[in-house]
Write the structure tokens for this entry.
Amino acid sequence: MKKADVVAHIAQRAGIPLQEVELLFESGQFRTLSKNTYIQQQGRGEAFIILIQSGCLMTYYMDEKGNKHVLQFGREMWWTGDLEGFQNHQPPGYSIRAVVESEVYLFSHDAWERTLLKVPGLERYFRILFANALIHHQKRIMRNLSVSAEQRYEAFKSYFPKLELLVPQKYIASYLGITPEFLSKLKRGVR
């Protein structure tokens, strides 16, 4: 996807002129990331809001034992980031890295706030976007609490059709809340 397509998509969804959306991109930093490149690391540096123009990102938390807990996979045209770190000017509480070669825009808190003051129409767009993200996360929590691992895996495959080919099985298992061994059994149809 090209930047012009991203700008047009946001302008259409936000109901604002292309020129106003361009102001957002002028405040961001464009980066091309190689596979496994970190955008941010847990506890280090600055937390960003990130727009994925192309590729796929993985957000995870590393616990005291060194276990990675995958919170999210983000794909083309998704916004992601560590909102708590971003909002509170704290180092990120999560690591985010490219699963495949990716193109992203990074927005710092100060640049973000300046742009929203210049373009009030973006406030509504992001309010709706963040509300939809919260709805998605609540549904995912309920799905994780109320359906079988097999049903979660089927939902994952339908939501991320090609991701299984790109991501190590251990990260998919972590996202689903199961062991890699159990995921292997699900894939083979053994329970």
